[in-house]
Design a protein that fits this description.
Layout lengths: L15 E4 L2 E4 L2 E9 L7 E10 L16 E15 L4 E10 L12 E4 L8 E8 L4 E2 L5 E4 L2 E5 L18 E2 L1 E2 L5 E2 L8
Parallel strand pairs: 4-7, 5-8, 5-9
Antiparallel strand pairs: 1-2, 3-4, 5-6, 10-11, 11-12, 13-14
Length: about 190
Amino acid sequence: MNWRENYQPTAEIALRRTVSGCPLIINRIELDINATYGKARGDFDADVASVFIRNEVEDQYKSIVNEEGESSFYGECQWLFRTSGKPRILRKLLNCKTIDAQGERGTSQPFAAYTPDQLPGKTVKMHIKLADEEKPGWGDTWVKVPNGWKRCMGKGYEDQRAYCNGNYKDFSTFQMPDGRQCTIYPGCTE
């Protein structure tokens, strides 16, 4: 199924079934989170969220189903940007983490955990939001400036890693997914 054209936000899932006389129960539902950052076919990335179903779940991880038969869990996805290849084309990585009631990002991917008896006839909702700010995919490769981020030069354009290594004055250009040559991200030009 093409998620870009046929997004289905709801699904009904049978927890138990029997195959060849063997009773089975689902123990994990993996939910793909897909997002695009450009118009080309390859300008997307993905992460996952999970619903775990276990016979026993520690209280600190066990999700609650309310009186209306609904349960929700929350996450936040953030774009991490980097450059790739000799022309230093900007690419993005989708990084999704669980968030608490105050909106603070956790360290794990978004998840909910239930025991099998909690779920029959119930509704589980996943709420995912996109972080307001993007950040570099890893440290010491971009420098924060008033209008955004500048890409460190490294040892030159041949240097794929291009760490700053203390040089916060020499920057490189990079190519946006749409082909524009830029000096600053996200605004392209200063």
